[in-house]
Design a protein that fits this description.
alpha+beta; Alpha-Beta Plaits; about 110 residues; 4 helices
């Protein structure tokens, strides 16, 4: 159980998240793409645009110059292209996992 709101401000966000196995102040975006769970770790992203170049149906570079997910990703998006796009990230800011939770890329 979390402390009452009046006491919550005295605890760090990290200590609350640590107890629940969540990341403190995480800037990770997640999207399901044709059976893959794809994550963008925006704190790592440098906006190289490699992902957008290979899979523009899935990724775009937003106004913050960081990778983001398109709104209407095709249901039949080629998984191989998605994984290749994730693998092209120079800073490993993209991850793809399968239905069993196995990390495929990077």
């Amino acid at each position: 159980m979390f402390p009452p709101p009046a006491l919550a401000c005295h605890r760090s966000a990290f200590s609350l998240c640590e107890r629940t196995n969540a990341r403190a102040m995480s800037n990770t975006h997640e999207q399901e793409v044709n059976g893959l769970t794809v994550e963008i770790e925006r704190d790592l992203c440098i906006g190289s645009g490699n992902c957008e170049s290979l899979a523009p149906e899935v990724f775009y570079i937003d106004t913050s110059n960081l990778a983001a997910f398109q709104d209407n990703i095709p249901d039949d998006m080629d998984r191989g292209r998605v994984m290749e796009a994730c693998g092209l990230c120079p800073v490993d800011a993209l991850r793809a996992t399968d239905e069993d939770g196995e990390q495929l890329v990077p």
